[in-house]
Design brief:
Blueprint lengths: L1 H15 L4 H12 L9 H13 L4 E5 L5 H7 L7 E6 L2 H13 L6 E5 L2 H10 L5 E6 L6 H10 L1 E9 L16 H14 L4 E8 L6 E8 L3
Parallel strand pairs: 1-2, 1-4, 2-3, 4-5
Antiparallel strand pairs: 5-7, 6-7
The structure holds S-adenosyl-L-homocysteine (SAH), 3,4-dihydroxybenzoic acid and magnesium ion.
The site of 3,4-dihydroxybenzoic acid (DHB) has 4 residues, from loops.
Length: 222
Protein backbone atom coordinates (compact mmCIF):
# COMPACT_ATOMS: atom_id res chain seq x y z
CA UNK A 1 0.00 0.00 0.00
CA UNK A 2 2.74 2.43 0.92
CA UNK A 3 4.55 1.85 -2.37
CA UNK A 4 1.32 2.74 -4.18
CA UNK A 5 1.10 6.04 -2.33
CA UNK A 6 4.74 6.79 -3.16
CA UNK A 7 4.17 5.76 -6.80
CA UNK A 8 1.26 8.18 -7.11
CA UNK A 9 3.34 10.99 -5.59
CA UNK A 10 6.12 10.14 -8.06
CA UNK A 11 3.69 10.26 -11.01
CA UNK A 12 2.34 13.69 -10.12
CA UNK A 13 5.81 14.96 -9.25
CA UNK A 14 7.05 13.94 -12.70
CA UNK A 15 4.23 15.81 -14.39
CA UNK A 16 3.46 18.76 -12.16
CA UNK A 17 6.68 19.49 -10.25
CA UNK A 18 9.54 20.28 -12.64
CA UNK A 19 13.08 19.48 -11.50
CA UNK A 20 14.19 22.20 -9.12
CA UNK A 21 17.83 22.60 -8.12
CA UNK A 22 17.29 24.74 -5.02
CA UNK A 23 14.63 22.44 -3.57
CA UNK A 24 16.59 19.27 -4.35
CA UNK A 25 19.73 20.78 -2.85
CA UNK A 26 17.80 21.79 0.28
CA UNK A 27 16.62 18.19 0.76
CA UNK A 28 20.07 16.73 0.02
CA UNK A 29 21.91 19.16 2.29
CA UNK A 30 19.44 18.52 5.12
CA UNK A 31 20.07 14.75 4.90
CA UNK A 32 23.85 15.23 4.63
CA UNK A 33 23.77 17.50 7.70
CA UNK A 34 21.96 14.85 9.72
CA UNK A 35 18.58 16.55 9.97
CA UNK A 36 15.62 14.17 10.38
CA UNK A 37 13.82 13.40 7.08
CA UNK A 38 10.54 14.97 8.13
CA UNK A 39 10.02 17.93 5.80
CA UNK A 40 6.79 18.09 3.88
CA UNK A 41 6.86 16.09 0.63
CA UNK A 42 7.27 17.92 -2.71
CA UNK A 43 3.52 17.77 -3.52
CA UNK A 44 2.72 18.99 0.01
CA UNK A 45 5.26 21.80 -0.29
CA UNK A 46 3.63 22.86 -3.52
CA UNK A 47 0.21 22.70 -1.84
CA UNK A 48 1.46 25.18 0.79
CA UNK A 49 2.83 27.37 -2.00
CA UNK A 50 -0.47 27.31 -3.87
CA UNK A 51 -2.53 28.02 -0.75
CA UNK A 52 -0.32 31.00 0.10
CA UNK A 53 -0.69 32.34 -3.44
CA UNK A 54 -4.44 31.67 -3.49
CA UNK A 55 -4.87 33.92 -0.49
CA UNK A 56 -2.44 36.53 -1.80
CA UNK A 57 -0.21 36.23 1.26
CA UNK A 58 2.36 38.98 1.70
CA UNK A 59 3.37 38.12 5.26
CA UNK A 60 3.84 34.46 6.15
CA UNK A 61 4.68 32.94 9.54
CA UNK A 62 6.13 29.44 9.79
CA UNK A 63 6.60 27.64 13.12
CA UNK A 64 9.20 24.86 12.65
CA UNK A 65 11.85 25.51 9.97
CA UNK A 66 14.00 22.34 9.94
CA UNK A 67 16.21 22.71 6.81
CA UNK A 68 13.98 25.31 5.21
CA UNK A 69 12.36 23.05 2.61
CA UNK A 70 8.79 24.19 3.27
CA UNK A 71 10.16 27.69 3.86
CA UNK A 72 11.46 27.85 0.29
CA UNK A 73 8.08 26.82 -1.11
CA UNK A 74 6.41 29.51 1.00
CA UNK A 75 9.04 32.15 0.19
CA UNK A 76 8.46 31.60 -3.50
CA UNK A 77 4.74 32.29 -3.05
CA UNK A 78 5.44 35.87 -1.97
CA UNK A 79 4.96 38.92 -4.15
CA UNK A 80 7.81 41.46 -4.30
CA UNK A 81 8.24 43.03 -0.89
CA UNK A 82 6.69 40.05 0.91
CA UNK A 83 8.20 38.31 3.91
CA UNK A 84 8.41 34.92 5.63
CA UNK A 85 9.29 34.75 9.31
CA UNK A 86 10.20 31.19 10.31
CA UNK A 87 10.85 29.97 13.86
CA UNK A 88 13.30 27.22 14.81
CA UNK A 89 14.62 26.05 18.18
CA UNK A 90 17.69 24.17 16.90
CA UNK A 91 20.71 26.30 15.93
CA UNK A 92 22.09 23.64 13.57
CA UNK A 93 18.74 23.30 11.78
CA UNK A 94 18.58 27.09 11.46
CA UNK A 95 22.13 27.27 10.06
CA UNK A 96 21.35 24.62 7.44
CA UNK A 97 18.06 26.36 6.62
CA UNK A 98 19.73 29.74 6.14
CA UNK A 99 22.17 28.21 3.66
CA UNK A 100 19.35 26.45 1.80
CA UNK A 101 17.30 29.64 1.72
CA UNK A 102 20.30 31.63 0.45
CA UNK A 103 20.87 29.09 -2.32
CA UNK A 104 17.24 29.55 -3.33
CA UNK A 105 17.83 33.31 -3.56
CA UNK A 106 15.36 34.06 -0.77
CA UNK A 107 17.56 35.45 2.03
CA UNK A 108 16.12 38.93 1.71
CA UNK A 109 12.54 37.71 2.03
CA UNK A 110 13.05 35.12 4.78
CA UNK A 111 13.94 35.72 8.40
CA UNK A 112 14.90 32.66 10.46
CA UNK A 113 14.42 33.31 14.19
CA UNK A 114 16.19 30.91 16.53
CA UNK A 115 14.63 30.10 19.89
CA UNK A 116 11.74 28.31 21.56
CA UNK A 117 8.77 29.14 19.35
CA UNK A 118 6.50 29.85 22.34
CA UNK A 119 8.93 32.53 23.54
CA UNK A 120 9.53 34.03 20.11
CA UNK A 121 5.76 34.16 19.54
CA UNK A 122 5.14 35.79 22.94
CA UNK A 123 7.74 38.45 22.07
CA UNK A 124 6.14 39.04 18.67
CA UNK A 125 2.71 39.42 20.27
CA UNK A 126 4.10 41.74 22.98
CA UNK A 127 5.69 44.07 20.44
CA UNK A 128 2.50 44.05 18.35
CA UNK A 129 4.14 42.61 15.25
CA UNK A 130 2.05 43.28 12.13
CA UNK A 131 -0.43 40.43 11.48
CA UNK A 132 0.37 37.58 9.10
CA UNK A 133 -1.77 36.56 6.12
CA UNK A 134 -0.75 32.90 6.22
CA UNK A 135 0.58 30.74 9.07
CA UNK A 136 2.07 27.25 8.78
CA UNK A 137 2.36 25.42 12.12
CA UNK A 138 4.85 22.52 11.94
CA UNK A 139 7.01 22.36 15.09
CA UNK A 140 6.60 20.12 18.18
CA UNK A 141 3.06 18.74 18.01
CA UNK A 142 2.66 18.69 21.80
CA UNK A 143 2.43 22.51 21.69
CA UNK A 144 0.01 22.67 18.76
CA UNK A 145 -2.70 24.37 20.83
CA UNK A 146 -0.23 26.97 22.16
CA UNK A 147 0.95 27.74 18.64
CA UNK A 148 -2.59 27.97 17.31
CA UNK A 149 -3.54 30.46 20.04
CA UNK A 150 -0.46 32.55 19.23
CA UNK A 151 -1.15 32.35 15.50
CA UNK A 152 -4.65 33.67 16.12
CA UNK A 153 -3.23 36.63 18.03
CA UNK A 154 -0.91 37.37 15.09
CA UNK A 155 -3.73 37.12 12.54
CA UNK A 156 -6.35 39.35 10.93
CA UNK A 157 -9.79 38.52 9.55
CA UNK A 158 -9.10 36.21 6.60
CA UNK A 159 -5.71 34.88 7.73
CA UNK A 160 -5.23 31.26 6.66
CA UNK A 161 -3.73 28.86 9.21
CA UNK A 162 -2.44 25.41 8.19
CA UNK A 163 -1.27 22.81 10.72
CA UNK A 164 0.84 19.83 9.63
CA UNK A 165 0.78 16.28 11.00
CA UNK A 166 -2.63 16.29 12.64
CA UNK A 167 -3.47 12.65 11.80
CA UNK A 168 -0.31 10.68 12.60
CA UNK A 169 -1.27 7.28 11.16
CA UNK A 170 -4.78 7.77 12.54
CA UNK A 171 -3.62 8.03 16.16
CA UNK A 172 -5.42 11.37 16.52
CA UNK A 173 -8.73 9.49 16.80
CA UNK A 174 -7.55 7.65 19.94
CA UNK A 175 -9.00 9.50 22.93
CA UNK A 176 -6.98 7.32 25.32
CA UNK A 177 -3.59 8.11 23.73
CA UNK A 178 -0.90 9.13 26.22
CA UNK A 179 1.37 10.40 23.40
CA UNK A 180 2.14 14.08 24.11
CA UNK A 181 1.97 14.93 20.40
CA UNK A 182 -1.45 13.34 19.96
CA UNK A 183 -2.70 14.99 23.14
CA UNK A 184 -1.49 18.35 21.82
CA UNK A 185 -3.31 17.92 18.50
CA UNK A 186 -6.46 16.77 20.27
CA UNK A 187 -6.29 19.72 22.69
CA UNK A 188 -5.92 22.15 19.78
CA UNK A 189 -8.84 20.59 17.93
CA UNK A 190 -11.00 20.64 21.04
CA UNK A 191 -10.29 24.34 21.52
CA UNK A 192 -11.16 25.03 17.89
CA UNK A 193 -14.55 23.41 18.43
CA UNK A 194 -15.28 26.19 20.95
CA UNK A 195 -13.58 29.00 18.97
CA UNK A 196 -16.18 31.08 17.14
CA UNK A 197 -13.56 33.25 15.38
CA UNK A 198 -12.24 30.31 13.33
CA UNK A 199 -13.70 28.18 10.53
CA UNK A 200 -11.71 24.97 10.10
CA UNK A 201 -11.52 21.50 8.65
CA UNK A 202 -8.97 18.70 8.55
CA UNK A 203 -7.99 16.54 5.62
CA UNK A 204 -6.23 13.17 5.72
CA UNK A 205 -3.28 12.63 3.40
CA UNK A 206 -1.25 9.70 2.15
CA UNK A 207 1.85 9.75 -0.02
CA UNK A 208 5.63 9.60 0.23
CA UNK A 209 5.34 10.36 3.94
CA UNK A 210 2.72 7.72 4.72
CA UNK A 211 -0.59 8.54 6.43
CA UNK A 212 -1.04 11.92 8.03
CA UNK A 213 -3.03 15.12 7.45
CA UNK A 214 -3.43 18.87 7.54
CA UNK A 215 -5.78 21.07 9.51
CA UNK A 216 -6.87 24.10 7.47
CA UNK A 217 -8.47 27.16 9.01
CA UNK A 218 -9.45 30.70 8.16
CA UNK A 219 -9.86 33.47 10.71
CA UNK A 220 -13.51 34.44 10.47
CA UNK A 221 -16.84 33.06 11.61
CA UNK A 222 -18.48 30.36 9.49
N1 LIG B 1 8.48 22.80 8.23
C1 LIG B 1 9.60 21.90 7.95
C2 LIG B 1 9.63 20.72 8.91
C3 LIG B 1 9.70 21.12 10.36
S1 LIG B 1 10.13 19.74 11.39
C4 LIG B 1 9.43 21.36 6.53
O1 LIG B 1 8.35 20.85 6.24
O2 LIG B 1 10.38 21.45 5.73
C5 LIG B 1 9.90 20.45 12.96
C6 LIG B 1 10.95 21.48 13.37
O3 LIG B 1 10.47 22.14 14.53
C7 LIG B 1 12.31 20.87 13.73
O4 LIG B 1 13.35 21.49 13.02
C8 LIG B 1 12.44 21.15 15.23
O5 LIG B 1 13.77 21.43 15.65
C9 LIG B 1 11.56 22.38 15.39
N2 LIG B 1 11.05 22.56 16.75
C10 LIG B 1 10.72 21.61 17.66
N3 LIG B 1 10.34 22.15 18.80
C11 LIG B 1 10.40 23.50 18.64
C12 LIG B 1 10.14 24.61 19.48
N4 LIG B 1 9.72 24.45 20.74
N5 LIG B 1 10.33 25.85 18.99
C13 LIG B 1 10.74 26.02 17.70
N6 LIG B 1 11.02 25.00 16.87
C14 LIG B 1 10.85 23.76 17.33
C1 LIG C 1 7.58 14.70 12.66
C2 LIG C 1 7.46 16.07 12.54
C3 LIG C 1 6.96 16.61 11.39
O1 LIG C 1 6.82 17.95 11.22
C4 LIG C 1 6.57 15.79 10.36
O2 LIG C 1 6.05 16.38 9.24
C5 LIG C 1 6.67 14.43 10.48
C6 LIG C 1 7.19 13.88 11.64
C7 LIG C 1 8.13 14.11 13.91
O3 LIG C 1 8.51 14.86 14.81
O4 LIG C 1 8.19 12.88 13.98
MG1 LIG D 1 5.48 18.38 9.57
Amino acid sequence: MKSTWADVDAFFEQHLLPADDALSAAMETSVAEGLPPISVTPPQGKLLHLLARMCGARRILEIGTLGGYSTIWLGRALPAGGKVVTLEIDQHHADVARRNIARAGLSERVEVQVGRASETLDAMIARREAPFDFVFIDADKASSDVYFDAALKLSHEGTVIVVDNVVRDGKVADATSEDADIKGIRRMTGKLARETRITATAIQTVGGKSYDGFLLAIVGAS
